[in-house]
Specification:
Helix content is about 5%, strand content about 40%. By secondary structure, the protein is mainly beta. It has one domain (about 25-120): Mannose-6-phosphate receptor binding domain (Cation-dependent Mannose-6-phosphate Receptor, Chain A). The chain has an 8-stranded antiparallel β-sheet. A hairpin with a 3-residue loop joins strand 6 (about 80-90) and strand 7 (about 95-100). The radius of gyration is 15 Å and the shape is globular. Residues about 1-15 have low confidence and may be disordered. InterPro entries: Man-6-P_rcpt, Man-6-P_rcpt_cation_dep, Man6P_isomerase_rcpt-bd_dom_sf, MRH_dom. This is MRH domain-containing protein. Pfam families: Man-6-P_recep (PF02157). One of its GO terms (biological process) is protein targeting to lysosome. GO terms for molecular function: protein domain specific binding.
Length: about 130
């Protein structure tokens, strides 16, 4: 199974503390439970930022509902890229797109809208469907 997050491979199960925006995603929630990875976290480091990613749990055990936390390496500014309680799922036969919404607002750009982040899960041929 491949999961692409900023072109980084990661695999996880969506369950636990997520609040899904649509009841229509119940089939997708059941489908990804079969992938047998539960409440995972990972830290991803780039030259400019560090990302803490949690699948339906706070990645750094914080009190905030942040599912993906970005820390800018240069100045240590911290941004929530999406919240656990603002989750949406869409999918097809062998893929699921998990989107976290309502993150930290942008300042003076992007019309001051809130950040969001999406994770794509792709089922490989060795995966049980």
């Amino acid at each position: 199974m491949r999961v692409i997050f900023f072109s980084i491979v990661f695999c996880a199960l969506v369950n636990g503390d997520c609040t899904f925006r649509s009841n229509d995603s119940k089939d997708l929630q059941d489908k990804i439970k079969k992938w047998k990875i539960y409440n995972s976290t990972v830290t991803i480091r780039s030259k400019t930022s560090t990302y803490q990613l949690g699948i339906c749990l706070a990645p750094n055990n914080s009190n905030i509902n942040g599912a993906i936390i970005q820390t800018i390496n240069e100045d240590s500014n911290v941004y929530v890229l999406g919240q656990i309680n603002q989750t949406n799922l869409v999918g097809g036969d062998n893929w699921i797109l998990l989107t976290y919404e309502n993150g930290s607002p942008y300042s003076n750009q992007c019309y001051n809208k809130t950040r969001s982040a999406s994770l794509m899960f792709v089922c490989g041929r060795n995966m049980v469907r």
